[in-house]
Structures are given as structure tokens and as C-alpha cells.
Design goal:
single chain; alpha/beta; Rossmann fold; 2 domains; 7 strands; about 55% helix; binds S-adenosylmethionine; binds 2-acetamido-2-deoxy-beta-D-glucopyranose
Length: about 270
């Protein structure tokens, strides 16, 4: 029988404890917590958007948008928007959640864009350019998408993602706050009205920016507003306005918060003039 000295046994116990501790933490991080939080919107956002993001930023000395761009450059084909969308969805499902509209709600977005076949589109909130690529790839020739982003680091990444998809011609990325740019749309970009507006910036801006677009005459009879995240994180004041106003005909499309099983959806509202 093998007899180990007391010191050796203590070392073995210590090493064994460290390995099981590390395995347990890894299982919690990769599997247990993500599975547990995917049914709860608030917890999912705190876990993915605060805790994991900060931890990975510190560990890798990079940012989530940089890591997302890296995944695009590794796994997407230049000039192929579909491969860009797929590389981002794969990255966000298997590696790291991110606040893109995502694949599930993305299909609803695609069908609205295809149905309207818009010539002029405004997107509020670019982030890394995921939805920008999704929309722009479906636009008819000569159509234009203006997308607004006030975070210069996100805008810099989005430019590269859009260029990787080969869509720079169709997309004009404008850096700055929606409240500042909406009143300048007509004179700066020669816009008459938008056929489609995709609202996906900070949730408390949906309502004031909608009223601003009305005041600035950027909506015509038939213009469509499509708003993301109306349930999670939620936009109660916007929903209440758009659903009760006689100037809009509004419909809810039920879906899930990107890359989770939490209910969320898109609200499609047609302006009646
Ligand atoms: C949910 S993310 C957009 C995701 C993107 N539409 C997608 O699906 O890939 C929201 C973005 O809006 C930007 N943002 C928030 N408020 C804004 C504002 N008032 N003007 C311009 N950008 C804004 C944020 O910096 C953030 O990048
Ligand atoms: C690229 O795709 C492969 C195969 O799907 C995957 O294993 C890899 O992690 C992806 N790379 C990045 C950086 O997302």
C-alpha cells in the first residue's frame, strides 16, 4: 500500500480543491448562471451587460465591440452581409451576449424592411452596426440608410463592420445625439421624409425623438416607425403614446430579447398623417 507523507497529502488536497473550485466557477460562468438568467430580463441584462462585460474587458484588455469586430474579421467573408450577420449572431450566442437586435427579432425587422422596400431609412442607435447591415443588405438600389450613434468608440467599430459587409455606399453613419441631428436632417442630408425609422437607442428617447420627428416634418402619411425593446428593457411612455394616438396605427410583434428566452418584441406603427 502506498503511504504518502502528511505534507504530500496536504498538497494533493490543496491542488484537488483548487481544481474543483476552478471547475465549479467555470461551470457557473459558462453554463449555470447564463441558463438561470435567460428567463429573467433584468438579471440577464445585469449579468451579460454589466458583470461579464466588465470582467472580460479587464481580463482581455479590450472592449466588447472590439471582440465582436474581431469575430467578424475572422469568420465573415468580405462583401457578404449575410456572413457578417451570421458571424455576429454566432459570437453572441456562443461567446458573448451583446445588445444587437439579434437573429430572432432580426427576422421580423427583415420582413418589415422587405415589405416597405424603403428609399430613405433612419436608424437611431447603431452600436456595432449589426442591424445596420441587416437593413442595408435588403435595400433597393439607390436607397439610403442614415444611422445615428453618439458613442465614438461604437461608431468606429460600426464603420468597420459596415465596410466589411461591403455596404458603405448605402449607409451614412452620423456621429452624435439623435436630439441634435433630427432637426438637421432636412438641410444636412437633403431628406424630405423617411419611409422607415428603426428606433433602437436609449429607451427614454423613443418618445421625445418621435415627437421631434413629427415636428420636423420627417414623417409622411404611410411612414413606418419600428421600435425595438418595447417590452425589455421596455418603453412604456412610448407604447402608451403610439397606441393611443389617432395619428398612428400600431401593432406589436411578439418575440424574445436578443439571444435569450425573455419576452420582448417590436412595435410597428404606421403614421397616418
Ligand atoms: C441597443 S444599441 C443599438 C443596437 C443596434 N441597433 C443593433 O441592433 O445592432 C443602442 C445604441 O444607441 C446609442 N444611443 C443611445 N442613445 C442615443 C442617442 N440619443 N443618440 C445617438 N445614439 C444613441 C448607444 O450608444 C448604443 O450604441
Ligand atoms: C469562428 O467560427 C468557428 C466555427 O463556428 C468558431 O469555433 C470560432 O470560435 C469563431 N471565432 C470567433 C472569433 O468567433
Amino acid at each position: 500500500m502506498l503511504v504518502l507523507c502528511l505534507g504530500c497529502r496536504m498538497w494533493l488536497t490543496l491542488i484537488y480543491s483548487c481544481i474543483s473550485g476552478a471547475a465549479l466557477l467555470y461551470a457557473l460562468y459558462r453554463w449555470v448562471i447564463p441558463t438561470a438568467v435567460q428567463y429573467h430580463g433584468g438579471l440577464a441584462l445585469i449579468w451579460h451587460d454589466v458583470i461579464v462585460e466588465r470582467m472580460l474587458d479587464t481580463l482581455t484588455q479590450s472592449t466588447r465591440p472590439q471582440r465582436l469586430l474581431n469575430a467578424v474579421q475572422k469568420n465573415a467573408t468580405r462583401g457578404d452581409p449575410r456572413s457578417v450577420v451570421k458571424a455576429i449572431d454566432d459570437f453572441c450566442r456562443h461567446k458573448e451576449w451583446a445588445m444587437n437586435v439579434g437573429d430572432e427579432k432580426g427576422c421580423i425587422l427583415d420582413s418589415v424592411v422587405s415589405e416597405i422596400n424603403p428609399a430613405a431609412v433612419l436608424e437611431l442607435g447603431t452600436y456595432c452596426g449589426y442591424s445596420t447591415v441587416r437593413i442595408a443588405r435588403l435595400l433597393p438600389p439607390h436607397a439610403k440608410l442614415i444611422t445615428l450613434e453618439f458613442n465614438p468608440d461604437f461608431a468606429a467599430i460600426a464603420r468597420q463592420v459596415i465596410a466589411w459587409a461591403g455596404l458603405e455606399e448605402k449607409v451614412q453613419l452620423v456621429e452624435g445625439a439623435s436630439g441634435d441631428w433630427i432637426p438637421k436632417m432636412k438641410e444636412q442630408f437633403g431628406i424630405t421624409t423617411f419611409d422607415l425609422v428603426f428606433l433602437d437607442h436609449w429607451k427614454d428617447r423613443y418618445l421625445p425623438d418621435t415627437k421631434l420627428m413629427e415636428e420636423c416634418g420627417l414623417l409622411r402619411k404611410g411612414s413606418v416607425l419600428l421600435a425595438d425593446n418595447v417590452i425589455c428593457p421596455g418603453t412604456p411612455d412610448y407604447l402608451e403614446y403610439i397606441r393611443s394616438s389617432p395619428r398612428y396605427e400600431s401593432r406589436y410583434f411578439k418575440s424574445h430579447l436578443e439571444y435569450t428566452k425573455v419576452e420582448d418584441g417590436l412595435e410597428k406603427s404606421v403614421f397616418k398623417g
